[in-house]
Amino acid sequence: MKKLILLGLVTLSMVAPALAQSDGELVAGRVAQFNAALANEHPRLLIRPADLPALRAFLKDLPSQPDGAALAKLALPPLDSRALIPEPKPARNGTLEGTKQWEAGYKAANETAAWAQRYALAWLLTEDPAYGREAARWLMHLASWDITRETYRTNDELFIQSLRPMIFAYDWAYAALTPEERATVGKALIARMEVLASQIQPKFTLTRPTAPDNSLSHPMRFISTLGQGGLALFHETKRAPGWLAWSYEYYLRQFPVWGGPAGGWAEGLNYWNTGISQHQRFLEGMALFGFKEPLARPFWRNTPYFGIYSLMPYPGSSFGDLTNIMGPSGSIALMMEKFAVLNADPYPLAYAKALRQKPPASFNYYTYDGADSFLQRFRTAQAKLPEVKLTELPQSRYFDDIGVVAMHSALGDAANDIMLGFRSSPQGSASHGFADQNSFVLNAFGQPLAINSGYREFYDSPHQVGWSRQTKAKNAVLFDGEGQRIKDATATGTITRFADGAGYSFATGNAQRAYGARAERALRHVFFVNRRYFVILDEDAAPEAVKYQWQLHARSPMTLSPERNEIVQQQGNARLTVRFLQPGVGALVFSQTDAFEPPVIESYRTKMPNEWHVTAETNARSKQQDFLTLLYPWKASGENGAAPASVSIPAEKGYAMRLSGQGSDEIVLMARESEKQVDAAGWKLDGMAASFVTHADGLRFTLIEATRLAGPVTLVSGAPISLEGIRTPQEVALVARPGDAVTLQIMPGFVVTRVTGAQSWQQAPDGLVTLRLAAGPVQVSMQK
After folding, report:
1. Which domains can be identified in the chain, with CATH numbers?
2. pTM of the model
3. Which residues of the chain have pLDDT under 50?
């Protein structure tokens, strides 16, 4: 064993002197395991020699399956002696013209390598020498390219997109190559892998987390290719086992920079999609050899739910780069299928079906491709998972690793779901994250209603830097027209509170640090009331008197009604009514524009839908300002009618509002953070928020972090508690999830004869019932 460790350390010191000794020990131990487990045979990447008989039989049967003929066609490309693609010319990113050439370069590189991979797969499946010769022709062409360290420095996408499919093609077509071809292609691959290792490994360690940084997005994505190259070349060079072991250990111990155990991805959905497809492909391949430890980590168990809760089953809006509008895709559906199979979890598969996407047929580097579609159909056919419904899941979820809360009313039901995403992230605005702490997006009834605004013609274009990354492009608050710091991992926000129940969600975000010195307080409280509408309370303060701007962005013009403090947005059949209850009518100046500053480059703008931006600005300067807003999504046709009438109720402390119509009377209370009290409308609340809905048959109520309630319902809690309840003349029912055991006192209004769900109970002569509740989910019923 000591010899193995010493050999591993010597090898590692030859490859990457920058690695710490402890990293070297981890790699050496893992190399020893791989040496014992990996036979000197090909293929190894996603396909093993033992898989080939079943895979070939699957191909023969595939045309008889639904859409199977199309998948079979993807696996067997035509033998048409197509012309080789010329080696791309060097180009630099950073200008519109330079970016066009830069993108053309990596696209040509990927297409070239993808043809080699496709012919290699066809050879594996058919053993047809013609496919083997085509794979060899394209591989030899790739090997002749002048791919160097300078290529990586000027166009790392060209470098990686020529490399990854080439690695697969070499592994899959290995037995079809002549010894001379293997030597030539192998030499080229080893040289390129050495460059890749030298650029990636010094940026990360295996023994401590790497802080978010603007330079880490691409290198972390490339770790998957380092591992795949190490696996394919495992017996071809002494360096390869170290590449494979280091990559595997990184996934096991530190991955990812952009998230944590909750499964979130701070760069947003687009970069989650393009990144996870790379990482998952590598780890799936390792799992086939029995190396499944990384997939058992909480991140990999939970990250499919980041997609389930954040990505709408239609083009909707989300957070991060390139997600002002992002729709489902065949690649994401395939990714979810893989999560279902790898995790033995049926919910990602149910979500994949809800997306209603066809399997990927293209060979784009950034997503799963046609070969992946073929292989996944083979894997899924071998897995049996039960049928489940997304409605069985909690309707909201908090990703505490990235500070994102996703609230839903009908998860997975595109036509009826109301979704609000709220972000206040500990990762700040680093990399492809933006200056959007305490901002929200809102999608409902199949439409994006409140969006993350802005475009990206190319990375760091004037428009992207000056608009899309900025707080002014988000549904957030500005201080005298100024927002948060961009490209700054320290410009953070924090979700300080998340409470959730069957009929409500509540979250608080603190974004003061992101605004820096211009803000002394930047709090936003979001209350999803009865999973039907939202009440938002903003508490803002500045060191000097300023004007405050409350912003809303959309894909269509909005109707402004200053006389009612109201904004109405419409998109298709969906509507969003926004009303300001505080400040009152006359205190805000409303404006709307469809202009961007800086503007989008004209040639790009004509290809993209327009956007509209509304600002509600205080007409007076002040050191502090609260905004209380009602956000009410509704359908122009259908059972969800227009927003009901709403009025602000005078309050001694905090804020209160009443909604009336549609057969009910509703009151919502919202407290300021420093007070945690509301006194209004006959109610006195010690807590953060409450809602009361009066029906003919009783009262339905929700309390957020309450310790005391006085009014038509009297309640006292020994610790702050969030709960929902129903009171009728015959019963009081409560549902709560206390973190610790708690004593609760409530006046039901009748003599109680039976209680279920409490550890103990008693009723005093004055009618007050004392309940002892256990920690965790509890359902209590007090019956007359």
Report:
1. 83-203 (no CATH), 396-643 (2.70.98.70)
2. 0.94
3. 1-18, 20
